[in-house]
From TrEMBL:
<keyword id="KW-0479">Metal-binding</keyword>
<feature type="disulfide bond">
    <location>
        <begin position="56"/>
        <end position="89"/>
    </location>
</feature>
<dbReference type="GO" id="GO:0005576">
    <property type="term" value="C:extracellular region"/>
</dbReference>
<keyword id="KW-0325">Glycoprotein</keyword>
<keyword id="KW-1015">Disulfide bond</keyword>
<feature type="domain" description="CFEM">
    <location>
        <begin position="3"/>
        <end position="93"/>
    </location>
</feature>
<comment type="similarity">
    <text>Belongs to the RBT5 family.</text>
</comment>
<keyword id="KW-0964">Secreted</keyword>
<dbReference type="GO" id="GO:0046872">
    <property type="term" value="F:metal ion binding"/>
</dbReference>
<protein>
    <recommendedName>
        <fullName>CFEM domain-containing protein</fullName>
    </recommendedName>
</protein>
<keyword id="KW-0472">Membrane</keyword>
<keyword id="KW-0349">Heme</keyword>
<feature type="signal peptide">
    <location>
        <begin position="1"/>
        <end position="16"/>
    </location>
</feature>
<keyword id="KW-0336">GPI-anchor</keyword>
<feature type="binding site" description="axial binding residue">
    <location>
        <position position="51"/>
    </location>
    <ligand>
        <name>heme</name>
    </ligand>
</feature>
<keyword id="KW-0408">Iron</keyword>
<keyword id="KW-0732">Signal</keyword>
Length: 93
């Protein structure tokens, strides 16, 4: 479950009006993208940035996304979200 938190935070970034047509956002599971959209207001990062490192470091954002993913996503989506988060935020998750 600890791994889900970082992955959720990363997916939140993709839904935050970022260019989802650009890697790495296109590979985030839809459920995680939806959670990220919901959590974007908690983020210290600007929704207009494509700086994933900012979102990767944002513990509040990660927590919000993780909680959402754990409560709303299917287990398969959770696993995919974690794998995605590990790819885009290496060393964080």
């Amino acid at each position: 479950m600890r791994l889900l938190l970082p992955l959720l935070a990363l997916t939140a970034l993709t839904t935050a009006q970022l260019n989802l047509q650009t890697a790495p956002f296109t590979n985030a599971p839809l459920c995680a993208q939806e959670c990220a959209t919901d959590a974007i207001n908690a983020a210290a990062c600007s929704i207009e940035t494509s700086d994933m490192a900012c979102f990767c470091r944002d513990s509040i954002f990660r927590s919000e996304v993780t909680a959402c993913v754990k409560s709303t996503c299917r287990i398969g989506d959770m696993i995919q979200s974690l794998a995605w988060a590990r790819r885009v935020c290496p060393g964080v998750f």
